[in-house]
Write a structure and sequence with these properties.
The protein has 312 residues and is mainly alpha-helical. It has one domain: MetI-like (MetI-like fold), CATH 1.10.3720. It has 12 helices and no strands. Helix 3 packs across helix 9 and helix 5 packs parallel to helix 10. Keywords: Cell membrane, Membrane, Transmembrane, Transmembrane helix, Transport. It is a multi-pass membrane protein. This is ABC transmembrane type-1 domain-containing protein. One of its GO terms (cellular component) is plasma membrane.
Length: 312
Amino acid sequence: MSSPPNAGAVPPELQAPLALTPTPPAKGVTQSASLWTWIGVLPFFVFAMLFLILPTAFLMVGAFQDPQGHFTLVNFRDLFSEGVMDAYWISFKVSAASAFGGAVIGSLLAWAAVQGQLPGWIRPTLMTFSGVASNFAGVPLAFAFICTLGRVGLVTVLLRKYTGLNLYSTGFSILSFTGLTLTYLYFQIPLMVLIVTPALDGLKREWREACDCLGGTAFQYWRYVALPVLWPSVLGAALLLFANSFGAVATAYALTGSSLNIVTILLYAQIRGDVLHNPNLGYALALGMILVTGISNGGYIWLRSRAERGRR
């Protein structure tokens, strides 16, 4: 017996609808969207050209010139003089100390707010304060610390009145290496909190639960799970803090004046000063600073990409 001609055929109501090929947008529409996209980022490129690329090019040209505009390498030879090397070394020590202190304290604060069993209002309050304090620098910050830890500052007077401790009799001075480092910590710690908080948010709760189910301790969790994930973010943030403090000038100049010979103050003296006035040497100093901060920022970018790959 022969089968009917439509035997085995799928009924029309069960057939999948044919996929519709999307109609490509018109060529003029695509070009218009692309044009508007470039117009949207145009202010960024203009800003970068005016305030980053052109000034850097001007510094590079001036660093290889003498006051008469002739080509010379004397400016780079003078970078290795004793006074300039001392300025770089002091700046390196201040930046390293403030970056280390900011990284440690900021990481602990962020961990307490994110992973600790604290009231819910702590984290938004800390993040709001960090966003404000990380941008509080320059002359206002220097004035605030002079009023707080200066010879007649509020904290200095209260300590002397109620505890009998005279800070300045111990050798402390707000105009010293220690004073400048403490001042930098005011904006370094909040900046570290802002940077490392997303990394702490990336620690999944399932990882800790899996460690507990396998009989692992809290030390083992941090040693073998959390720290391997977090260390690129923490180290990269510390490098960013180093670059941030290495290039600071307004706070240091307003706080210490010329009593602490850091490289940013020496640069300012070479370009704008009346005694140490050698702008071309100042340009060479600036190029050296760009090299140091560029290496730090490059390390931060590399470590950040490594941390993102690790979280994925």
